[in-house]
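Notebook B, p. 112. Complex prediction, attempt 2.
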Amino acid sequence: MSQRWLQEIVNLEGVEGVFIASNRAKIIDKIGLDLKDSQLEALSLRILRIVAGYHINSQKVNEVEFYWQNLYVIGKVSNEFILVTFCKTPKVLSLLRITLNVTMANILEDKKFIKIIKNHVADRVFALEKGDTDEIEKNLISKLK
Amino acid sequence: MADLNNKVVFNENAIFALSKSKSPSEVTLRSAEWAVITQIDGHKTVKDISDLLSMGNDEANGLFQELIQKELIELQSMDEDKIEYVPPDFFKMLEAELTKVIGPVAPLILDDTIMEMDTTKDHCLPERIPELIEMVSEEIVDSQKKVKFQQIMLNQLKGMM
Protein backbone atom coordinates (compact mmCIF):
# COMPACT_ATOMS: atom_id res chain seq x y z
CA MET A 1 0.00 0.00 0.00
CA SER A 2 2.95 2.31 0.53
CA GLN A 3 4.20 1.62 -3.00
CA ARG A 4 1.93 4.35 -4.39
CA TRP A 5 3.52 6.99 -2.16
CA LEU A 6 7.03 5.74 -2.73
CA GLN A 7 6.40 5.77 -6.49
CA GLU A 8 5.47 9.46 -6.33
CA ILE A 9 8.83 10.19 -4.72
CA VAL A 10 10.85 8.03 -7.08
CA ASN A 11 9.15 9.68 -10.08
CA LEU A 12 10.89 12.95 -9.24
CA GLU A 13 13.92 13.87 -11.33
CA GLY A 14 17.19 12.75 -9.79
CA VAL A 15 15.65 10.35 -7.25
CA GLU A 16 17.24 6.89 -7.39
CA GLY A 17 15.22 5.13 -4.75
CA VAL A 18 13.39 5.34 -1.48
CA PHE A 19 12.61 3.05 1.43
CA ILE A 20 10.64 2.99 4.66
CA ALA A 21 12.10 1.41 7.76
CA SER A 22 10.68 0.96 11.22
CA ASN A 23 12.33 2.60 14.20
CA ARG A 24 13.93 -0.77 14.81
CA ALA A 25 15.69 -0.39 11.45
CA LYS A 26 13.57 -3.12 9.85
CA ILE A 27 12.89 -2.48 6.15
CA ILE A 28 9.13 -2.20 5.57
CA ASP A 29 9.00 -1.23 1.91
CA LYS A 30 11.36 -0.02 -0.81
CA ILE A 31 11.34 1.01 -4.43
CA GLY A 32 13.98 1.65 -7.10
CA LEU A 33 16.89 0.43 -5.03
CA ASP A 34 19.58 -2.03 -5.98
CA LEU A 35 20.80 -2.46 -2.43
CA LYS A 36 20.53 -5.36 -0.01
CA ASP A 37 18.18 -5.02 2.95
CA SER A 38 21.17 -5.52 5.25
CA GLN A 39 22.82 -2.40 3.76
CA LEU A 40 19.61 -0.41 4.12
CA GLU A 41 19.19 -1.62 7.68
CA ALA A 42 22.73 -0.51 8.51
CA LEU A 43 22.02 2.89 7.00
CA SER A 44 18.71 3.16 8.89
CA LEU A 45 20.50 2.34 12.11
CA ARG A 46 23.07 5.03 11.38
CA ILE A 47 20.32 7.61 10.84
CA LEU A 48 18.54 6.52 14.04
CA ARG A 49 21.80 6.87 15.95
CA ILE A 50 22.34 10.40 14.60
CA VAL A 51 18.82 11.35 15.69
CA ALA A 52 19.33 9.70 19.07
CA GLY A 53 22.58 11.63 19.47
CA TYR A 54 20.70 14.90 19.06
CA HIS A 55 17.98 13.63 21.39
CA ILE A 56 20.57 13.30 24.16
CA ASN A 57 21.25 17.02 23.71
CA SER A 58 17.47 17.65 23.96
CA GLN A 59 17.36 18.60 20.28
CA LYS A 60 14.53 17.25 18.16
CA VAL A 61 15.68 16.30 14.69
CA ASN A 62 13.14 15.40 12.00
CA GLU A 63 15.43 15.31 9.00
CA VAL A 64 18.98 14.23 8.28
CA GLU A 65 20.77 14.93 5.00
CA PHE A 66 24.18 13.60 3.99
CA TYR A 67 26.20 12.08 1.15
CA TRP A 68 26.64 8.29 1.08
CA GLN A 69 28.34 6.36 -1.72
CA ASN A 70 28.04 9.34 -4.10
CA LEU A 71 24.33 9.58 -3.40
CA TYR A 72 22.57 12.39 -1.61
CA VAL A 73 20.52 10.88 1.19
CA ILE A 74 17.55 12.48 2.94
CA GLY A 75 16.27 10.70 6.02
CA LYS A 76 12.91 11.89 7.35
CA VAL A 77 12.22 10.70 10.87
CA SER A 78 8.92 10.30 12.71
CA ASN A 79 8.07 8.58 15.98
CA GLU A 80 6.89 5.50 14.08
CA PHE A 81 9.19 5.11 11.07
CA ILE A 82 11.89 6.65 8.91
CA LEU A 83 11.63 7.49 5.22
CA VAL A 84 14.95 7.47 3.41
CA THR A 85 15.45 8.84 -0.10
CA PHE A 86 18.49 8.47 -2.34
CA CYS A 87 19.17 11.10 -5.02
CA LYS A 88 21.75 11.11 -7.75
CA THR A 89 21.76 14.91 -7.65
CA PRO A 90 19.94 17.22 -5.28
CA LYS A 91 18.59 19.00 -8.37
CA VAL A 92 14.97 19.24 -7.34
CA LEU A 93 15.63 19.42 -3.64
CA SER A 94 12.81 21.83 -2.77
CA LEU A 95 10.22 19.82 -4.68
CA LEU A 96 11.57 16.63 -3.11
CA ARG A 97 11.41 18.02 0.44
CA ILE A 98 7.81 19.17 -0.08
CA THR A 99 6.88 15.78 -1.55
CA LEU A 100 8.54 14.00 1.38
CA ASN A 101 6.69 16.16 3.92
CA VAL A 102 3.37 15.41 2.26
CA THR A 103 4.18 11.70 1.91
CA MET A 104 5.11 11.45 5.59
CA ALA A 105 1.78 13.06 6.50
CA ASN A 106 -0.13 10.70 4.19
CA ILE A 107 1.58 7.65 5.67
CA LEU A 108 0.93 8.82 9.23
CA GLU A 109 -2.76 9.19 8.39
CA ASP A 110 -2.97 5.60 7.11
CA LYS A 111 -4.07 3.59 10.16
CA LYS A 112 -3.49 0.21 8.50
CA PHE A 113 0.08 1.08 7.61
CA ILE A 114 0.81 2.52 11.02
CA LYS A 115 -0.49 -0.71 12.56
CA ILE A 116 1.99 -2.69 10.46
CA ILE A 117 4.80 -0.33 11.43
CA LYS A 118 3.92 -0.51 15.11
CA ASN A 119 4.25 -4.28 15.01
CA HIS A 120 7.92 -3.66 14.28
CA VAL A 121 8.40 -1.04 16.94
CA ALA A 122 10.09 -2.29 20.05
CA ASP A 123 12.54 -0.72 22.41
CA ARG A 124 14.38 1.77 20.20
CA VAL A 125 17.45 1.69 22.42
CA PHE A 126 17.71 -2.06 21.89
CA ALA A 127 17.72 -1.51 18.13
CA LEU A 128 20.45 1.10 18.39
CA GLU A 129 22.71 -1.38 20.15
CA LYS A 130 22.72 -3.67 17.11
CA GLY A 131 25.66 -3.72 14.72
CA ASP A 132 29.10 -2.23 15.18
CA THR A 133 29.43 0.51 17.74
CA ASP A 134 32.52 2.20 19.09
CA GLU A 135 33.03 3.22 22.73
CA ILE A 136 31.68 6.75 22.23
CA GLU A 137 28.52 5.41 20.60
CA LYS A 138 28.05 2.80 23.34
CA ASN A 139 28.40 5.53 25.93
CA LEU A 140 25.81 7.73 24.15
CA ILE A 141 23.34 4.84 23.77
CA SER A 142 23.66 4.01 27.49
CA LYS A 143 22.52 7.57 28.27
CA LEU A 144 19.25 6.88 26.47
CA LYS A 145 18.33 4.06 28.84
CA MET B 1 22.55 25.20 -31.67
CA ALA B 2 25.81 26.03 -33.46
CA ASP B 3 25.98 27.49 -36.95
CA LEU B 4 28.71 27.14 -39.59
CA ASN B 5 30.91 29.78 -37.94
CA ASN B 6 30.84 27.84 -34.67
CA LYS B 7 28.67 30.52 -33.17
CA VAL B 8 25.98 29.47 -30.75
CA VAL B 9 22.59 30.64 -31.87
CA PHE B 10 20.42 31.94 -29.08
CA ASN B 11 17.63 34.43 -28.55
CA GLU B 12 16.89 36.91 -25.76
CA ASN B 13 15.05 34.22 -23.79
CA ALA B 14 18.14 32.02 -23.56
CA ILE B 15 19.46 31.21 -20.10
CA PHE B 16 23.15 30.61 -19.53
CA ALA B 17 25.02 29.00 -16.67
CA LEU B 18 28.67 29.33 -15.70
CA SER B 19 30.87 26.65 -17.19
CA LYS B 20 31.83 23.83 -14.86
CA SER B 21 35.04 23.14 -16.74
CA LYS B 22 36.61 26.60 -16.77
CA SER B 23 36.78 29.44 -14.25
CA PRO B 24 36.71 33.16 -15.19
CA SER B 25 39.89 33.58 -13.15
CA GLU B 26 41.77 31.54 -15.78
CA VAL B 27 41.33 34.10 -18.54
CA THR B 28 41.59 37.85 -19.01
CA LEU B 29 38.24 39.54 -19.24
CA ARG B 30 37.11 43.02 -20.16
CA SER B 31 35.03 44.86 -17.56
CA ALA B 32 31.88 44.45 -19.69
CA GLU B 33 32.46 40.69 -19.85
CA TRP B 34 32.94 40.59 -16.09
CA ALA B 35 29.69 42.51 -15.66
CA VAL B 36 27.85 39.82 -17.65
CA ILE B 37 29.61 36.98 -15.82
CA THR B 38 28.53 38.35 -12.43
CA GLN B 39 24.88 38.34 -13.55
CA ILE B 40 24.82 34.79 -14.89
CA ASP B 41 23.09 32.61 -12.33
CA GLY B 42 21.28 29.94 -14.34
CA HIS B 43 17.99 31.81 -13.98
CA LYS B 44 18.31 35.20 -15.67
CA THR B 45 17.70 35.35 -19.39
CA VAL B 46 19.90 37.22 -21.86
CA LYS B 47 17.22 39.92 -21.92
CA ASP B 48 17.15 40.20 -18.12
CA ILE B 49 20.92 40.65 -18.03
CA SER B 50 21.07 43.11 -20.91
CA ASP B 51 18.28 45.16 -19.28
CA LEU B 52 20.07 45.13 -15.94
CA LEU B 53 23.32 46.26 -17.52
CA SER B 54 21.58 48.73 -19.87
CA MET B 55 23.01 47.07 -22.97
CA GLY B 56 21.65 46.97 -26.46
CA ASN B 57 20.77 43.64 -28.09
CA ASP B 58 23.83 43.64 -30.34
CA GLU B 59 26.23 44.49 -27.55
CA ALA B 60 24.77 41.82 -25.27
CA ASN B 61 24.83 39.26 -28.07
CA GLY B 62 28.49 40.04 -28.79
CA LEU B 63 29.50 39.73 -25.15
CA PHE B 64 27.67 36.44 -24.71
CA GLN B 65 29.31 35.07 -27.88
CA GLU B 66 32.76 36.04 -26.58
CA LEU B 67 32.11 34.34 -23.26
CA ILE B 68 30.90 31.21 -25.07
CA GLN B 69 34.04 31.17 -27.23
CA LYS B 70 36.15 31.47 -24.08
CA GLU B 71 34.20 28.46 -22.71
CA LEU B 72 33.18 30.38 -19.61
CA ILE B 73 29.43 30.01 -20.06
CA GLU B 74 27.15 27.30 -21.36
CA LEU B 75 23.69 27.53 -22.82
CA GLN B 76 21.38 26.04 -20.20
CA SER B 77 17.95 26.43 -21.75
CA MET B 78 16.14 28.30 -24.46
CA ASP B 79 12.61 28.31 -25.70
CA GLU B 80 12.60 29.16 -29.38
CA ASP B 81 9.40 31.14 -29.15
CA LYS B 82 8.71 32.25 -25.66
CA ILE B 83 9.75 31.21 -22.19
CA GLU B 84 6.81 30.04 -20.13
CA TYR B 85 6.74 32.03 -16.94
CA VAL B 86 4.51 31.24 -14.01
CA PRO B 87 1.03 32.63 -14.78
CA PRO B 88 -0.16 35.51 -12.55
CA ASP B 89 -3.16 33.44 -11.47
CA PHE B 90 -0.82 31.04 -9.71
CA PHE B 91 0.52 33.80 -7.46
CA LYS B 92 -3.04 34.92 -6.69
CA MET B 93 -3.90 31.35 -5.67
CA LEU B 94 -0.66 31.00 -3.65
CA GLU B 95 -1.34 34.28 -1.86
CA ALA B 96 -4.93 33.23 -1.07
CA GLU B 97 -3.84 29.86 0.32
CA LEU B 98 -1.07 31.44 2.38
CA THR B 99 -3.47 34.08 3.72
CA LYS B 100 -5.77 31.29 4.94
CA VAL B 101 -2.90 29.95 7.02
CA ILE B 102 -0.89 32.94 8.24
CA GLY B 103 -3.37 35.77 7.79
CA PRO B 104 -3.10 39.22 6.18
CA VAL B 105 0.67 39.30 6.40
CA ALA B 106 0.81 36.69 3.60
CA PRO B 107 1.11 39.13 0.64
CA LEU B 108 4.07 40.86 2.31
CA ILE B 109 5.78 37.56 3.09
CA LEU B 110 5.24 36.41 -0.47
CA ASP B 111 6.61 39.61 -2.01
CA ASP B 112 9.64 39.60 0.30
CA THR B 113 10.39 35.96 -0.51
CA ILE B 114 10.13 36.54 -4.26
CA MET B 115 12.51 39.49 -3.92
CA GLU B 116 14.88 37.38 -1.80
CA MET B 117 14.90 34.82 -4.61
CA ASP B 118 16.03 37.56 -6.96
CA THR B 119 13.06 37.15 -9.26
CA THR B 120 9.69 38.80 -9.92
CA LYS B 121 6.11 37.58 -10.28
CA ASP B 122 6.25 38.50 -13.98
CA HIS B 123 9.49 36.62 -14.71
CA CYS B 124 9.39 33.66 -12.37
CA LEU B 125 10.23 30.33 -13.97
CA PRO B 126 8.05 27.33 -12.99
CA GLU B 127 11.06 25.36 -11.75
CA ARG B 128 11.60 27.96 -9.02
CA ILE B 129 8.12 27.55 -7.53
CA PRO B 130 9.00 24.60 -5.22
CA GLU B 131 11.78 26.75 -3.74
CA LEU B 132 9.27 29.58 -3.22
CA ILE B 133 6.75 27.26 -1.57
CA GLU B 134 9.42 25.82 0.70
CA MET B 135 10.59 29.29 1.72
CA VAL B 136 7.13 30.68 2.49
CA SER B 137 6.27 27.44 4.33
CA GLU B 138 8.96 28.35 6.84
CA GLU B 139 6.68 31.17 8.00
CA ILE B 140 4.00 28.65 9.05
CA VAL B 141 4.63 27.74 12.67
CA ASP B 142 1.97 25.03 13.03
CA SER B 143 3.48 21.88 11.49
CA GLN B 144 0.08 20.39 10.56
CA LYS B 145 -0.98 23.58 8.79
CA LYS B 146 2.40 23.66 7.06
CA VAL B 147 1.96 20.16 5.63
CA LYS B 148 -1.64 20.92 4.64
CA PHE B 149 -0.44 24.02 2.78
CA GLN B 150 2.35 22.06 1.06
CA GLN B 151 -0.16 19.34 0.12
CA ILE B 152 -2.40 21.88 -1.63
CA MET B 153 0.56 23.51 -3.38
CA LEU B 154 1.98 20.15 -4.45
CA ASN B 155 -1.31 19.33 -6.19
CA GLN B 156 -1.10 22.67 -8.01
CA LEU B 157 2.51 21.99 -8.98
CA LYS B 158 1.58 18.66 -10.57
CA GLY B 159 -0.49 20.54 -13.11
CA MET B 160 2.23 23.06 -13.76
CA MET B 161 5.52 21.15 -13.99
